[in-house]
C-alpha cells in the first residue's frame, strides 16, 4: 500500500489524501452519532449554533465541510481514473463538493424544522370547540374540566364559564378566552 501511494504522481496523491482523510473523519463522525456521542468531540463548532433557532440555513458547518472534502476527493479520483485533464478534474470535484454541501445544508435545515418545543400555548385554544368533562360551575363559581383539541392533541384542561347555569358533563363548548394562568373561559355552544 505504501509503495502504491509513493509511486503516485502529486496530483492523484493529493486527491487520494483528501478522499481518505475526509472518509475517515466522516466514518468517525457517523460512528459517534450512532453510539450516542456527538461529532462535537472532534471539535464541531456547530453545537454553539444549533441551540439558536434563529440562524436558519447553515451552509458552512463542520459536517458540511467533511461532506465537501469527502465528495471532492472521491469525485476527483473518479475523474483522474476516467483520464480527464487536471483543470476539468478540479472543476468537477469542486462542483460535486459544493453540491454535496448544498444537499446536506438543505437536509439539516429541514430536519431542524421538524423539532417541536412541546410547550403548550393556551392562546391556541381560543375559538376551539370541545366538550365539558367535569361540570363547570355557573358564573365562575367552580372550576371544571373541558376536553379541547389544541396544537393537534386532545387535552383535558381546567375551565370556567360566565354562563348563568352550570355546564354539565357532555355539553359542547367553545373557548372564548384564556386566563393568564391557563384556565379556559368557555361558553356553551348549543343552547
Strand content: 15-25%
Number of helices: 5
Residue windows where pLDDT falls under 50 for at least 5 positions: 39-52
> What gap, in angstroms, lies between the N and C termini?
86 Å
Which percent range fits the helix content? 40-55%
Number of domains: 2
Query: What's the total count of β strands?
Result: 5
The secondary-structure element order is HHHHHEEEEE
Task: Provide a descriptive summary of the structure in words.
It comes from Thalassobellus suaedae. This is NfeD-like C-terminal domain-containing protein. The chain crosses the membrane at residues 14-35, 65-84, 90-110. Keywords: Membrane, Transmembrane, Transmembrane helix. With 191 residues, the chain is of the alpha+beta class. It folds into two domains: 2-112, no CATH class; 122-188, OB fold (Dihydrolipoamide Acetyltransferase, E2P), CATH 2.40.50. Helices cover 43% and strands 18% of the residues. It has five helices and five strands. The protein has helices at residues 2-6, 10-34, 46-50, 62-81, 86-112; strands at 129-134, 144-150, 153-161, 172-178, 184-188. A hairpin with a 2-residue loop joins strand 2 (144-150) and strand 3. Helix 2 packs across helix 4 (62-81) and helix 4 runs antiparallel to helix 5. The termini are far apart.
Amino acid at each position: 500500500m505504501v509503495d502504491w501511494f509513493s509511486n503516485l504522481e502529486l496530483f492523484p496523491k493529493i486527491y487520494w489524501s483528501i478522499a481518505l482523510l475526509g472518509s475517515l473523519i466522516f466514518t468517525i463522525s457517523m460512528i459517534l452519532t450512532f453510539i450516542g456521542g456527538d461529532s462535537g468531540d472532534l471539535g464541531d463548532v456547530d453545537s454553539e449554533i444549533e441551540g439558536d433557532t434563529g440562524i436558519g440555513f447553515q451552509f458552512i458547518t463542520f459536517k458540511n465541510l467533511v461532506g465537501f472534502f469527502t465528495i471532492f476527493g472521491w469525485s476527483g479520483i473518479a475523474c483522474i481514473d476516467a483520464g480527464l485533464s487536471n483543470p476539468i478534474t478540479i472543476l468537477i470535484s469542486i462542483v460535486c463538493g459544493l453540491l454535496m454541501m448544498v444537499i446536506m445544508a438543505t437536509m439539516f435545515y429541514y430536519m431542524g424544522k421538524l423539532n417541536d418545543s412541546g410547550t403548550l400555548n393556551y392562546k391556541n385554544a381560543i375559538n376551539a370547540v370541545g366538550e365539558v368533562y367535569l361540570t363547570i360551575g355557573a358564573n365562575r363559581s367552580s372550576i371544571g374540566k373541558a376536553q379541547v383539541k389544541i396544537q393537534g392533541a386532545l387535552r383535558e384542561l381546567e375551565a370556567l364559564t360566565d354562563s348563568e347555569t352550570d355546564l354539565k358533563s357532555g355539553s359542547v363548548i367553545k373557548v372564548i378566552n384564556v386566563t393568564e394562568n391557563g384556565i379556559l373561559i368557555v361558553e356553551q355552544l348549543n343552547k
